[in-house]
């Protein structure tokens, strides 16, 4: 159901570590506008933004591509990397020749990553594997598959284990094959919500930019939070956050446009995708 004019604007928040730099210093309770944070996995928030159950959200880039005519991008916000991302990992049990036409188990929590995997396997490696959905349990996935895709914190934790599998980073593979960075998520607002509540959306947008800026200036609170909640070492998390970009400038747009082009060539998207910013956006 669409939000009414007197309802709070609902803001979708993925709680993966890769979005923390945008959200860590974001305090909805300090805003003048009425707002509410809604936590969810990427696939759930993608659906909720599409149906109007939330108004603004970090969404999988692919989900933006499917619904670009209904959304505007909030400029200069994304989850991107130029090379290794460390949280989109393909754990390979069999030789790549077998994987190319074998079975890959994968979670369904991120449409962008699932389709990035298809682009990598089919356009870059020339394969045509069978994709099987599964819960994010590495051992169980690889009992019946030649490779397994994990994303987010599940991928990070699995990468710390002594598992004996070859690990391929999808961000690294994308850069090696294309020379571009990859954008995994963007921040989008429903056009109808932005038209009804431009001032509130503007306040939320500026607060998100300010949070991103503060985290970039001082990432140590993110590092401490990650060690506390997920584990690992401070040095790992400093490297992890340093490898991410939360900007969305010309480089990120070029990489994402190429991703959408490949997705169309594989029949994953029916129409070209326009990267259209919210026209009323005013930078903080």
Automatic annotation (TrEMBL):
SUPFAM superfamilies tied to this protein: Periplasmic binding protein-like II (SSF53850)
Pathway(s) of this molecule: Quinol/quinone metabolism; menaquinone biosynthesis
Catalysed reactions, as listed in the record: chorismate = 3-[(1-carboxyvinyl)-oxy]benzoate + H2O
Classification via InterPro entries: Menaquinone_biosynth, MqnA
Pfam family, one: VitK2_biosynth
Keyword terms of this UniProt record: Lyase, Menaquinone biosynthesis
GO biological process assignments: menaquinone biosynthetic process
Family matches, as Gene3D superfamilies: Periplasmic binding protein-like II (3.40.190.10)
Entry's EC annotation: 4.2.1.151
Sample GO molecular function, one term: hydro-lyase activity
Superkingdom field: Bacteria
Purpose: Catalyzes the dehydration of chorismate into 3-[(1-carboxyvinyl)oxy]benzoate, a step in the biosynthesis of menaquinone (MK, vitamin K2).
Assigned protein family: Belongs to the MqnA/MqnD family. MqnA subfamily.
HAMAP family in the cross-refs: MqnA
The protein, known as: Chorismate dehydratase
Species this chain originates from: Cohnella zeiphila
């Amino acid at each position: 159901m669409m939000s009414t004019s007197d309802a709070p604007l609902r803001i979708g928040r993925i709680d993966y570590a890769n979005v923390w730099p945008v959200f860590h210093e974001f305090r909805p309770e300090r805003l003048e506008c009425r707002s509410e944070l809604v936590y969810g996995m990427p696939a759930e928030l993608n659906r909720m933004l599409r149906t109007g159950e939330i108004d603004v959200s970090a969404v999988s880039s692919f989900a933006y591509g499917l619904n670009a005519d209904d959304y505007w991008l909030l400029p200069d916000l994304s989850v991107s990397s130029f090379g290794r991302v460390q949280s989109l990992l393909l754990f390979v049990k069999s030789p790549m020749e077998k994987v190319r036409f074998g079975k890959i188990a994968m979670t369904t929590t991120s449409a962008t990553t699932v389709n990035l995997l298809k682009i990598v396997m089919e356009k870059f490696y020339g394969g045509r594997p069978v994709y099987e959905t599964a819960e994010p349990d590495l051992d169980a996935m690889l009992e019946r598959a030649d490779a397994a895709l994990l994303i987010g914190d599940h991928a990070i934790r699995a990468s710390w284990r002594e598992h004996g599998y070859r690990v391929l980073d999808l961000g690294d593979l994308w850069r090696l094959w294309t020379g571009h960075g990859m954008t995994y998520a963007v921040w989008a607002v429903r056009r109808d919500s932005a038209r009804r509540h431009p001032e509130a959306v503007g306040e939320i947008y500026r607060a998100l930019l300010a949070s991103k800026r503060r985290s970039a200036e001082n990432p140590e609170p993110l590092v401490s939070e990650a060690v506390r909640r997920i584990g690992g070492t401070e040095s790992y998390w400093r490297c992890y956050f340093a490898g991410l970009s939360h900007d969305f400038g010309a480089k990120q747009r070029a990489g994402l446009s190429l991703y959408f082009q490949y997705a169309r060539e594989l029949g994953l998207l029916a129409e070209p995708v326009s990267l259209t910013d919210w026209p009323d956006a005013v930078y903080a």
